[in-house]
Design goal:
Blueprint (H helix, E strand, L loop, with lengths): L12 E10 L2 E22 L7 E10 L5 E6 L3 E5 L6
Antiparallel strand pairs: 1-2, 1-5, 2-3, 3-4
Length: 88
């Protein structure tokens, strides 16, 4: 089931699929894990008239089954899906 950002909850298992379009196709990647944190975080980039004059991005932090922490920048090409917990 695809999720809207307001439906994401800490501890929920999700799959994020992101794609980058190119002239002759697209590159697509997916990552799956448990949500640790979700929200907007500012970057080091300057952006006029934004809060603190910084560029803010939606970021989703996941913990994969092997313990690796992954930080994903969520954009309009990101698809977030709820998935069943991993077996075992």
């Amino acid at each position: 089931m695809q999720l809207a950002p307001h439906q994401i909850q800490i501890g929920q298992r999700v799959r994020i699929t992101q794609s980058i379009a190119f002239a002759k196709g697209a590159a697509r990647t997916s990552v799956e894990g448990t949500v640790i944190r979700y929200g907007q975080q500012k970057t080091g980039s300057w952006f006029a008239h934004a809060k603190d004059d910084k560029l803010w991005l939606d970021r989703l932090e996941l913990k994969k089954d092997d313990g690796e922490i992954v930080v994903c920048n969520i954009d309009g090409n990101s698809v977030i899906e709820s998935v069943e917990p991993a077996a075992g």
